[in-house]
Design brief:
alpha+beta, 16 helices, about 40% helix, elongated
Amino acid sequence: MSTDTTTGVVTDYEAVMGLEVHVELATATKMFCGCANEFGAEPNTHVCPVCLGLPGSLPVLNAQAVELVLRFAEAVHLRVPEHSIFARKNYFYPDMPKDYQISQYEEPITVDGWIDIDGARIGIERAHLEEDTGKTIHVGGGGRIHEANYSLVDYNRAGVPLMEIVSRPDIRSAEQARAYVSELRAVLQAIGASDVKLEEGSMRVDANVSVRPRGSSELGVKVEIKNMNSLRSLGRAIDSEIERQIAVLTSGERLVQETRHWDEADGRTHSMRTKEGSSDYRYFPEPDLVPVAPTEQMRERVRSTMPELPAAHRARLVAEWGVTDGDARILVATLGLADYAEAAAVALQAGTAKDVVNWCIGDVLAYLNETGLSPEVLPLAPDGLAELVDLVADGTLSRNQAKDVLGECLREPKRPKQVVAERGLAQVSDESELGAVVDAIIAANPADADEYRAGDDKVRKKKRGFFMGEAMKATKGQGNPQLLNRLLDERLAE
């Protein structure tokens, strides 16, 4: 901890953060009714008396939602109490048709877990079930309610199953916060709990940020930040809020507990409202739902169907394939891409799994990001990628030729060998044929050969480029560059 010696004011602070991650669960129907849980439908078409909160309607708990939360509990070491209860969380807002939300408060379905992030253990206080709200669209102005000309409400999302994951205040930087959310996303994808699409709102993050003098054990005033719809936004918002809080404290002012809105355009947080406490929500047990008591049979079924988790998956790829941890992270973080790569690796004849990874996290991933497709619907099947890797490994294609072939195979349902045959792309790798080409070029350019042999490094580099260009021109770009380079080395050394 450092102190300004002229004023005695503490100038060295550390951030303390906890995150609340809301995840829409990948169930077929909503939390308490039979309406479809589907993103992108026409507004107000997936609604019924239950999710609209009409008088006389009664909720029935979605068993699939319970099972998905239990899967998450297994993945992040959460304890599952013998029973949990739902509560009514009361507040008024236009997108809450009942004027209350069915959630869990004092007795959640899971508690006391953890997840390791780059050597640091982040505690998870709880992961509980609740229903999502509807969606309000403010039309006109900047899209905020106080700027809008009018507002529209879509209740399709009202009642969608949500899991709220509440971390302990163990996070110390924006970078660590992003890593934590990224790992949660990978885990949730792996266990099939959610599609975790931040851009569609199926995963939403609120950050509780405070600062305190470095070395202090007391927590500072907590400020909640909302409206972060990407990992980049999350990092920027946290850094901005830390800077703001430190500026307030160093100026001698006091922070207030409040909720703030992140504005992506101006890169700052703005006050929304003072932070509510639990008393403001007037929680009380939901009278229309019985306690949730997962049976041991249900728990065992969940355990027996758990997939390989991301951390273990990355470690295996590093150990077995010799790829870097960074490459393994990219591969595993993209839903379905690691499975695609592993299927391709099994089909290899000449190439290596590391070659497969390089193509997957390069050209294949770029195409997926550009088109929004998932690996399982690519025109090029995994064994087709293996075929391409083999064509490079056996010298049939150069890396640049393979890049061109892959692009065509990703756009159209063609195999690499088919494209090579159609376009006459097969690389010339016959040593005697290429040797004759090199001999002819050197014989046609004796002065250049003499300059190469007598020149310094700069001259040799220039002349070498000339000879290589002539060789590729003579072979119409299909000469094996590695073989041509070796032959030029041998002939020019004579």
